[in-house]
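Morning run. Coffee first, then this:
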Amino acid sequence: MQTPAEVMAARANAVELVSAAAVATAVDQVAVRMTLALATENPLLVCVMNGAVPFAGALLPRLQFPLQFTHVHVSRYGDATRGGELNWHSEPDLDVSGRHLVFIDDILDQGLTLAALRHWALARGAARVSIAVLVDKQVPDAQQRPVAADFVALRCEDRFLIGCGMDYQGYWRNLPAIYAVPTDSDPAPPRSGRVE
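And here it is:
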């Protein structure tokens, strides 16, 4: 099966916002902040599939303290560019009760997915919930989000982002840098990205 032309065009038209080297530096820096805050917490880190896989993979080797790691798989996008209803594919395979959970995600946009995960964890007895994201997207109503990230590697403008786990129709998560993709519904210059 050939890669869809629209997917190839999205990459061809994308503009690099954050280089691969700058992403790596930002992950180094957030790892230091997380180490200072979590080294004595015995945390349970929970990767939010699929988008957080590259960030989690880069982050974990930099955290030189005892921790446990698992994942949760939820989605609100599918192939769409706007979020819909939260769909659960799998829950963490470790007991979360009494633990300090740290959800690791690729991006904090409107925050609805992470708010739902935080509510889920607290309802199951988690002692505390923190959030670590690669990108905190600077959306206009950021102050109204239901959650805030405790650990942020990068802040990016409100654009449709791909790379480092963020995708376009399931593609381009594997790019080592972060790019902005113009969309048909964007005013000029392109503004909107994925809305959680």
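The CA atoms of residues 13 and 45 lie 35 Å apart. Good start to the day.
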